[in-house]
Amino acid sequence: MMTDTMTNPPAAYQKLLRRMREVTCLKSTSCALEWDQDTYMPPQALAYRAEQLAYLRGRAHRLFAARTVGAWIAECEQQGLAPDSVEGANVREWRRQFEQATKVPAAFVEKLERVKALAHEAWRAARAQSKFELFRPHLAKIVALIRQKADYLGYEVSPYDALLEEYEPGARAAGIASLFADLRPAIVSVLQPALQKSAAVPDHWLPGAYPLAAQQLFNRRVAEAIGFDFAAGRIDTTTHPFCATLGAGDCRLTTRYNENDFTFSLFGVLHEAGHGLYEQGLPPEHFGRPAGAAVSLGIHESQSRLWENHVGRSRSFWEHWHPIACEYFPDLQALSVEQIHAGVNRVRLSFIRVEADQVSYDLHIMLRFALELKLVTGQLAVADVPGYWNEQFEQMSGLKVTKDADGCLQDVHWSLGGIGYFPTYTLGNLNAAQLMQRARQEHPSLNEELGRGQYQTLLTWLRQKVHQAGSRYRPQELMQRVTGEPTSIRAHLEHLREKLT
Amino acid sequence: MMTDTMTNPPAAYQKLLRRMREVTCLKSTSCALEWDQDTYMPPQALAYRAEQLAYLRGRAHRLFAARTVGAWIAECEQQGLAPDSVEGANVREWRRQFEQATKVPAAFVEKLERVKALAHEAWRAARAQSKFELFRPHLAKIVALIRQKADYLGYEVSPYDALLEEYEPGARAAGIASLFADLRPAIVSVLQPALQKSAAVPDHWLPGAYPLAAQQLFNRRVAEAIGFDFAAGRIDTTTHPFCATLGAGDCRLTTRYNENDFTFSLFGVLHEAGHGLYEQGLPPEHFGRPAGAAVSLGIHESQSRLWENHVGRSRSFWEHWHPIACEYFPDLQALSVEQIHAGVNRVRLSFIRVEADQVSYDLHIMLRFALELKLVTGQLAVADVPGYWNEQFEQMSGLKVTKDADGCLQDVHWSLGGIGYFPTYTLGNLNAAQLMQRARQEHPSLNEELGRGQYQTLLTWLRQKVHQAGSRYRPQELMQRVTGEPTSIRAHLEHLREKLT
Question: Does B48 contact A249 at a Cβ distance shorter than 8 Å?
Answer without folding.
Answer: yes
